[in-house]
Amino acid sequence: MNINTHDNTNVPALKIQGLSKVYDNGFHALKGIDLTVPQGGFFALLGPNGAGKSTTIGIISSLFPPTAGSVEIFGVDLIRQPAKAKQFLGVVPQEFNFMQFENVQDILINQAGYYGIAKSQAKPRAEKLLKALGLWDKRNTKSRMLSGGMKRRLMIARALMHKPRLLILDEPTAGVDIELRRSMWEFMEYINQEEKTTIILTTHYLEEAEQLCKHIAILDKGQIRINTDMKSLLASLDVESFVLDFAQEHHEPITLQHTLRHQKIDNLSLEVTLKKGDSLNGIFAQLSNQGVQIASMRNKSNRLEELFMNLVENKLTTKLNDQV
Q: Which UniProt keywords apply (predicted)?
């Protein structure tokens, strides 16, 4: 059933050159970005709000044309051959955009029909995806009756019906609880590894990017500031965050010196950010002087939280460029 065969394994899954977008109101959303995503990878595209991520995805999805530049999907020019290029592409947008009164299985089968896939082939594919995503028992349920998390999984299943070789996931786990989010991560890893699907992920849950993706590009104000492998990026971060758990509740404000940042999470815990290698002993002494005893501490697992702060100050970009 795989309609997306392609012989040249050296062709990038996605190649963007000189991509610019100026909206009618004069806003310059993209400023000549270049980006290459190799086949088979799990690629993170991150950036603060307004960075240009949604515009980039909108152009790749053919929702609107670029002002300048080119986009190729597995070597096929999206502007010149949109129908052919889109055969390789699956997109999971942030918004739910399926028919609310259509049942779950029919949504998938009808989606396959748009790609010329016969119903006899679509039904087993739909069954496989619905079972993998925990939706099989909802197959005859109207989509409007699904929870938000189920609707999100249905969007993923629909995008995969034609076995796209490139899948774009735009905030796929937004509003999904942590347990379901992790099961969706596992499914994404399966699709990436077993079906050899190249995946581009945008997310505000930065731990997703750190756990799943080997490569990362960061957009800021319409330009790509960083394009590197995740290992190099994490090695470049020169800060560490810790969560300190209090021995008992502390309701008063806490003031600390010699930290990059600190903030009470609640009355039982505090997050502290230091330069990598700085000692916590002085922090403990300051807390003790304010009547706070620490019962336990742990590293905050998500170091990528520091990215946008460093980008604003242009420190991270300069450091990475110095390494090249």
A: ATP-binding, Nucleotide-binding, Transport
